[in-house]
User: Which sequence fits this backbone?
């Protein structure tokens, strides 16, 4: 009786387990070629990561090519020619795709490629190169990214759209921050009194252009730093924490001041007076060249001083950019979009003033809204950076 | 009534309030308006003990301070305040 019970149990368990077995399809064997040098730091990181992948995926093997040994450098050059890329290390070739460099995006792309190739057919280009068989252009594969179709625009990658919208929203919210705006307003007011339109245009445009350029340089240097440290996990946590602190402070400030009269806050008398004197001096200058030099210096100083007031959003946006593997041109493009939107309110006020010869003010209640919107955005980004970094990398 | 209007050249709220003030104050014929700039009329501004939010309107009746209006106010809010002050006095 006991034996019969055991047999029934085995049979039931067997029936339950069987569907799982029948669902498991034999995975494709994937061969990964890894070009490295023992002296290169990123190669070490990549080697460790490939080791982790081997533990996780039993269907992958890794061939190691130290570029200083034998003909390995020649082989890397051939790989570079086939994929039309520079022969750099670390380089990883899987099927029809080659990855150069090492960052978080490559991390994810490598794993996604392994998952895709495990269940789908692919061409092993490395095998073709080693067998000296011609590689066809159709053999070269690309990373699959999520795409959506938009009216008028057509197909667009979710990653590009998200980064673009991020630049628009964050730039706009950042722009309504009144910290540096008062200088432009004061400058325009002083220029209008001069009644010399040419001079007004020249000085105003120089101020705005220099402000944009300084902001651009600051964001590019942050981006450079963020890209080089993108694989440092604790830094991601630290920036996430900074975002939570800045965001929390903005929300606190909004709640605290919600019943306070909307107006201009008078702060730092000494610094304001200094800047006002400098503007008066610039406007008085007879030589336009000297006035322009003065306004360039003024824009640089003001933007550096006021940076502390609005550092949160640009810092976070550059961090988001760093997590997405883009070309230098695309990095510059997104930062450019951010800065354009950051300056849009200044540009509108300046243009209206130039045309009507009157300075128009935007109610400070908008800057109050920008405080709360910016705060909430920073809190969300902080949580994402710490707990869900994949979303920041737009890999859902 | 006398209104001492403390504004600043760099202050967005002061600029955005100009239109509202113009519309409201033209309805009152007996107003004397004194414009003071926070940075350019420093000494006079000090006498009025102005706070940290601009613009600030200090209203006097028969030489006595009767009200301070701080920050941005819309047209109907300002009309309501002025109406109240006229009724009270």
Assistant:
């Amino acid at each position: 009786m006991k034996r019969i019970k055991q047999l029934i149990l085995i049979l039931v368990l067997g029936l339950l387990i069987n569907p799982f077995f029948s669902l498991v399809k034999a995975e494709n064997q994937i061969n990964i070629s890894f070009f490295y040098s023992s002296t290169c730091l990123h190669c070490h990181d990549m080697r460790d990561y490939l080791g982790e992948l081997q533990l996780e995926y039993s269907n992958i093997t890794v061939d190691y090519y130290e570029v200083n040994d034998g003909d390995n450098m020649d082989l890397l050059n051939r790989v570079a020619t086939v994929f039309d890329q520079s022969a750099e290390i670390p380089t990883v070739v899987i099927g029809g795709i080659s990855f150069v460099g090492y960052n978080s995006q490559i991390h994810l792309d490598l794993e996604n490629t392994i998952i895709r190739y495990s269940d789908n057919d692919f061409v092993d280009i490395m095998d073709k190169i080693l067998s000296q068989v011609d590689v066809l252009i159709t053999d070269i594969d690309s990373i699959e990214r999520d795409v959506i179709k938009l009216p008028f625009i057509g197909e667009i990658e979710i990653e590009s759209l998200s980064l673009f919208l991020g630049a628009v929203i964050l730039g706009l919210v950042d722009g309504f921050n009144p910290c540096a705006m008062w200088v432009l307003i004061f400058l325009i007011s002083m220029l209008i009194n001069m009644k010399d339109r040419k001079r007004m245009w020249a000085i105003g445009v120089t101020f705005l252009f220099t402000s944009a350029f300084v902001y651009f340089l600051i964001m590019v240097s942050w981006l450079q730093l963020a890209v080089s440290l993108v694989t440092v996990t604790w830094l991601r946590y630290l920036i996430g924490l900074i975002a939570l602190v800045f965001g929390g402070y903005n929300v606190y400030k909004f709640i605290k001041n919600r019943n306070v009269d909307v107006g201009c806050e008078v702060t730092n008398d000494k610094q304001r007076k200094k800047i006002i004197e400098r503007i008066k001096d610039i406007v008085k200058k007879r030589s336009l060249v000297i006035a322009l030099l003065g306004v360039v210096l003024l824009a640089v100083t003001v933007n550096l001083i006021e940076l502390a007031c609005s550092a949160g959003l640009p810092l976070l946006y550059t961090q988001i950019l760093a997590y997405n593997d883009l070309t230098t041109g695309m990095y510059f493009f997104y930062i450019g979009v951010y800065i354009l939107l950051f300056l849009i309110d200044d540009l509108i006020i300046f243009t209206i003033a130039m045309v009507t010869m009157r300075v128009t003010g935007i109610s400070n209640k908008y800057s109050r809204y920008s405080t709360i919107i910016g705060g909430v955005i920073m809190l969300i980004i902080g949580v994402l950076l710490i707990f869900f970094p994949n979303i920041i990398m737009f890999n859902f | 009534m006398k209104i001492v209007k403390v504004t600043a050249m760099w202050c967005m709220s002061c600029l955005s309030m100009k239109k509202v003030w113009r519309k409201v104050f033209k309805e009152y014929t007996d107003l004397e308006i004194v414009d003071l700039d926070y940075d350019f009329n420093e000494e006079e501004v000090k006498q009025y003990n102005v706070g940290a939010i601009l613009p600030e309107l200090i209203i006097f009746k028969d030489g006595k301070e009767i009200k301070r209006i701080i920050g941005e106010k819309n047209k109907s809010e300002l009309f309501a305040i002025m109406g109240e002050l006229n009724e009270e006095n």
In short: The helical segments of chain B are 12-25, 42-47, 75-88. The longest helix of chain B spans residues 12-25. Chain B touches chain A through 20 residues (CB under 8 Å). The domain at 2-88 of chain B is CATH 3.40.30.10 (Glutaredoxin).
